[in-house]
Specification:
mainly alpha
């Protein structure tokens, strides 16, 4: 039901647009697609330096910096996907205004393609975490088979928010300008760089309901802890993601009737 109105041709176009957007993102640069790997590596390296050298962090009961780095990147990687996906999705309609006005296709595909752009930094982070586990003498966890499920949930989640923001950005261009600042606030307000126990006890119940924190914990459970995510977390993320996607799709389809006059 949530994909009502989409057919096989739309999914084929989704894949084609994703490949094209990925190539266009680094068009003209000498390193090309290498930047898709270098960029998240540089960001991860910066935060790893900050939280292991400047403000060194440790996990309770675990010695050395490697366990903490594994924990840090396994939560920060999904956030990189959030940041990249939402930024790309928000600008997707405005940056493709010529296509939207002159080509007959389902324009709601564009924010979904934008959300998919977050897959690249996420995969880079996962590879780094697995490499650190090998260096630290850990074997990959069997729960890695659940990674596709986590990625699908995250993609639905980001697509829902992206559909809403992409349509809003057509009418309120400040949306794309406010978003980076808002995401930065959410990042440092969420238990992604810090343990939940680092926060005051009275705000922890609210933080647990933060879907961005729940996503980070979903990946940490699968990659780091090697255990099945708690049922409430899976159910909560699934319900929130589907609700956001359905609501975002409805919002986008209502507003796209007026796109031509604003693009």
């Amino acid at each position: 039901m949530i994909l009502a109105g989409f057919d096989q041709r739309d999914f084929a176009m989704l894949k084609s647009l994703f490949r094209m957007n990925l190539g266009d993102r680094f068009l003209g640069s000498k390193l090309g697609l290498v930047w898709a790997v270098l960029s998240p590596l540089m960001l991860m390296g910066t935060f790893c330096f900050v939280f292991t050298v400047v403000f060194p962090g440790r996990l309770p009961g675990k010695e050395g910096p490697i366990p903490f780095l594994i924990w840090l990147i396994s939560g920060y990687g999904p956030w990189l996907a959030v940041n990249e996906g939402l930024m790309s999705a928000t600008n997707s309609v405005v940056s493709n205004s010529g296509v939207v006005k002159n080509v007959a296709f389902k324009s709601e595909i564009l924010p979904i393609v934008g959300a998919m752009m977050g897959i690249v930094p996420l995969l880079v982070a996962i590879v780094v975490v697995l490499g650190l586990q090998v260096v630290g003498g850990e074997l990959p966890k069997w729960t890695l088979i659940l990674l596709p499920f986590a990625m699908i949930v995250q993609l639905v989640f980001l697509s829902g928010i992206g559909l809403f923001l992409a349509a809003l950005n057509v009418f309120v261009r400040d949306t794309a300008l406010i978003l980076p600042n808002l995401l930065q606030i959410i990042l440092f307000a969420s238990p992604i760089f810090y343990l939940l126990t680092s926060y005051p006890a009275f705000v922890r119940p609210l933080l647990v309901c933060n879907p961005f924190y729940a996503l980070a914990e979903l990946y940490r459970g699968i990659i780091v802890d090697g255990k099945l995510p708690e049922f409430w977390m899976i159910a909560y993320l699934a319900v929130v993601s589907i609700a956001l996607f359905v609501g975002g799709l409805w919002w986008f389809r209502r507003l796209k009737l007026f796109f031509d006059s604003r693009l």
